[in-house]
Amino acid sequence: MIKFVNAKINIGLQIVSRRSDGYHNLQTVFYPVGLYAGTPENPVEFCDVLEIITVEQDEQITLELTGNKVDCPIEKNLVWKAAQLFFEAGAPEGFKVKISLDKHLPDGAGLGGGSADASFTLLMLVELAERYAREKGLQWKAPEKKQLLDMAFSLGADCPFFIYNSPAYGEGAGEKLTPVNLDLAGHWLLIAKPFASVSTKEAFAGIAVCPDVPDLRKIVNESPGKWGETVKNDFENTIFAKHPEIGEIKDKMYGLGALYASLTGSGACVYGIFKDRGTAQKAQMEMQHNPTIKALSLLKL
Q1: Is position 158 annotated as part of the catalytic site?
Q2: Residue pLDDT, tens place only, 124-158
Q3: Of the listed 48, 102, 158, 234, which one is catalytic?
Q4: Which of 135, 136, 132, 114 is nearest to 124 (CA)?
């Protein structure tokens, strides 16, 4: 079984309070991106490729990593952790898998690539285990959606979103999700990854809590061109102060015709939503020689 793993952006990210478990309560709108990557219309490689097959082997799980190097030991890789959680919850007798992850999504970018890999792993293992149990004539009960969401949240605050992988309003630490009727079809997204990197610790270090925030669910009734007036990412104040070149990328997006531009999540990447492909392509050409930008990706929404 092979799946192409997409990413996400946050449209608005408001930190409303601190929690006792180390997380912060937030409000945001998650939107999946990269769903058309690799198609003839949008051939850019902007997805991870995850393959899981059932095998006859001694180990329950083996994991092979290719593509972009992920700088962490394999036992800390979220795909490995997700697979371990699945087997700890109870898999069909004799069910063993080989997992291959070909990494292309940028890490540390606020795009949720690692979280998506983990959630896709859980979903694929459930599907494969159900198929395996049927073929072997075994009685096996798959995890219910609530259990799957709890497993995903234990791996990371963004992981539950990828269990649904459709536009959603997020509350709590991001795990409380409500579907929203937001459709950006026809628009194009330009993502700029700067050379500067921002760790999660750095992003949260100077964050200011503000309980009195606009209701982001209302953006579904507005065009992206109006979002800049009220839809804010609270990490921008801290990150732009320490890395002004990232803030300049956002300003450049607006100057080149973006309807809305923002940081992606708490990471270093900046995205711009453009009204059409032509406008987005012109912006990409203007920005491709910017010495502070490491990579640009143009995606159909």
Answers
A1: yes
A2: 999 999 999 999 999 999 999 999 999 999 999 99
A3: 158
A4: 132
